[in-house]
Amino acid sequence: MYDAVVIGAGPAGYVAAIKLAQHGKRVAVVEKSFVGGTCTNWGCIPTKAILSSAHLYRNLVEKASELGVILQNVSFDFSKIKNHMNKVVMASRKGIEYLFKKNGIELFVGEAIVESPNSVKVQDKKLEAKYLVIATGSVPTLFPPFDEVPGIWTSDDVFKMERLPESVLIIGGGVIGVELATFFSSLNVKVTVVELLEHILPNEDADAAQVVAKSLKKKGVEIYESSKVVSVQPSENGYKSIIETKDGQLEKVTERVIVAVGRRPKIGDDVKALGLSIERGIKTDETMLTNVPNVYAIGDVRGQIMLAHVAMYEGVTAAENICGKPAKMDYSAVPSVIFTEPEVASVGIKEKDVDPSTVKIFSFPLMANGRARTMLEKDGFAKFIADSKTGRILGAMIVGPYATELIMEAAIAVRNGLTAEQLEKTIHPHPTLSETLLGAIEGIVDKPIHL
Ligand code: NAI
């Protein structure tokens, strides 16, 4: 008898398993594919690997000469970019396998069939456990008419491609859509992005989306916002798509079409048969417990915030509760990180969602930052939102190089209720991009020195 059986070895499941084992529990993990789940194998890690190649290539093309670096015949080799991606994925996978061994976690490779809250079948083995942790993740959403088009791609297919297409139409200008548009356009693929809502990256503020849109357009990307793809038909040279835009219909022929309109939780009939309450995904309380005693659900399968870092924290929360250490998830400061050029990162409340009479908002432009100038970077900003009465930081949005790293200062502030004054009084090193954040904070407290 195991203390816990975890189904799915993605960021939610593998972290929960390790935490449980660290607390001395006997743990089995069932994974039908590779450890690491979508994030390691078909998501975060491979995208960032190929984006690193694309970013370096683009930087060389765009900046080398001005920085005094003489290069001749800068080019790229897509098969080597893929080699790099595969090596990084493999190393990450091996790392998780190593951690399983180190912590005495038993890994069963195969499809788990849940028989009861205490019993799971995998191939010819029956695993019995006191607790069941469901971490089966999500799959890309495909709906009509796109699901009937032969050879249409989702993000999963991008990582399998053998060569770069000449042109792609990306349906959905959300996180996956814009990261893929950044990758393809950086490597000279002709890209069209179609977004249903008013602007790409609709979950972020419009000013952030505008900077990304400007940079994509500079790379030749055509962006259609408030637009819809109404049909996709295979044609001689790929696919012929009809796009309904604000200004009427237009036709686009591209070699590939990628659908990136969101993901949906993966919940098998065996799991449903447990009598779990399901709404978008498996419903849980803040301890990650479902309505069925001793059954926990974590990560994308909950259908809530589908981010690897949220999944990992949910894994830890479930594990601690199983170990008798009461813990609750706190979603007040979830950083969002988008690996476009420039990068976009945000945390806490957004300007678009806040009543302006209750807050102070200040945006400091990247152009006024010395370190950014040394890097030939000028497009972006750091924006902070603070409560106008208490001065507490409620949210922040950063657009610029390394925004995905810089966001942590703001995340710590939001999570811990720090005030703008407390951040301002913290010495920021010079010359660094973090001074862009300082500029915004100074603007909230009083006036920024460097503007
Ligand atoms: P998403 O929800 O971020 O974006 C989907 C986009 O498609 C939305 O902007 C939506 O308005 C649009 N859309 C929906 N139907 C459409 C239609 N018929 N025509 C045109 N546009 C349409 O989902 P996405 O990008 O597929 O990502 C899936 C999940 O993976 C998300 O939860 C995302 O947060 C996560 N992810 C996170 C990353 C990161 O944190 N850097 C990277 C990649 C994925």
How would you summarize the topology of this molecule?
Blueprint: E1 2-7, H1 11-22, E2 27-31, H2 37-42, H3 44-63, H4 78-102, E3 106-109, E4 112-116, E5 119-122, E6 125-134, E7 138-140, H5 155-158, E8 167-171, H6 175-186, E9 190-194, H7 206-218, E10 222-224, E11 228-235, E12 238-245, E13 248-254, E14 256-259, E15 263-265, H8 269-272, E16 278-279, E17 281-282, E18 295-297, H9 308-322, E19 336-338, E20 343-348, E21 359-365, H10 370-374, E22 381-387, E23 393-400, H11 403-416, H12 420-424, H13 434-445
Parallel strand pairs: 1-2, 1-6, 2-3, 6-18, 8-9, 8-14, 9-10
Antiparallel strand pairs: 4-5, 5-6, 7-15, 11-12, 12-13, 16-17, 19-20, 20-23, 21-22, 22-23
1,4-dihydronicotinamide adenine dinucleotide binds at residues 171-177, 179, 194-197, 202, 228-229, 260-263, 306-307, 337-339.
What do these coordinates show?
- With 451 residues, the chain is α/β, with parallel strands linked by helices.
- The protein has 3 domains: 2-140 and 264-322, FAD/NAD(P)-binding domain (3-Layer(bba) Sandwich); 146-261, FAD/NAD(P)-binding domain (3-Layer(bba) Sandwich), CATH 3.50.50.60; 336-444, FAD/NAD-linked reductase, C-terminal dimerisation domain (Enolase-like, domain 1, 2-Layer Sandwich).
- It is built from 13 helices and 23 strands.
- The strands form 6 sheets. Strands 1, 2, 3, 4, 5, 6 and 18 form a 7-stranded mixed β-sheet that branches. The chain has a 5-stranded antiparallel β-sheet with strand order 19-20-23-22-21, with helices on both faces.
- The model has no long low-confidence stretch (mean pLDDT 97).
- It binds 1,4-dihydronicotinamide adenine dinucleotide.
- Residues 171-177, 179, 194-197, 202, 228-229, 260-263, 306-307, 337-339 line the site of 1,4-dihydronicotinamide adenine dinucleotide (NAI).
